[in-house]
Amino acid sequence: MKGLRRLAPAKRLRRMHDQLARAYGPQHWWPAKTAFEVILGAYLTQNTAWKSVELSLDNLRNAGALNLDALRTLALEDLKQLIRPSGFHTRKAPALKAFIAMLDAEFAGSLDALAATPAEPLRRRLMALPGVGPETADAILLYAFKHPVPVADEYLRRIAERHRLLTPAPKGNRMGYESLVHLTREAFAADAAEDHAQLFNEFHALTVAVGKSHCGRTANCTNCPLISDLQNISL
Ligand code: SF4
What we know:
By secondary structure, the protein is mainly α. Helix content is 64%, strand content 0%. It has two domains: 2-28 and 151-234, Endonuclease Iii, domain 2; 35-144, Endonuclease III, domain 1.
């Protein structure tokens, strides 16, 4: 047990991935049929539970607006109303319109052309858009475009802090986010590079699964698949 305590944080995180994979199995993320639906979901899920996002996506589907062409011509006020269930609709609707404006002006309206942009410049471009922080940009890169980019969310931050994998950073701190991304990259560095997109896909989905079941605002460690790691650092 003492040996485990001396394991580097990245190695422990890799083991935690394996424990979660054994406990929960394949997660089959992202819950969307097209790259554009992933992008919509990545915007709409900000500060909102996925169930609320589904209501907005249902509204868009029922209005025939769950595709790029329809959303391009949809009036801003109509878009606000359709996505109202997922909250912050007065901010998210213009942000979605800004994404489409950028796509049309710089990529001839082509998601394929956007997807073909290398990950780093694409990440910078997305983060220069209104309403796009690193988590949204990384979710789009990974789940819409299959770039090998980790996504670090609030659940992963909680797990990393509670397991003392990282020094706690103030909430919303950009360096805190980038440290989590760096730690995740390190955790999977020994895996084949061509597997990284799928590993990052599963890892993020698994951390959401354990976050929802056990590691929310209050930690419910009983029967959590990660309890052995926590017990080892407490010894
Ligand atoms: S619930 Fe407890 S054991 Fe599970 S991930 Fe959170 S802190 Fe770790």
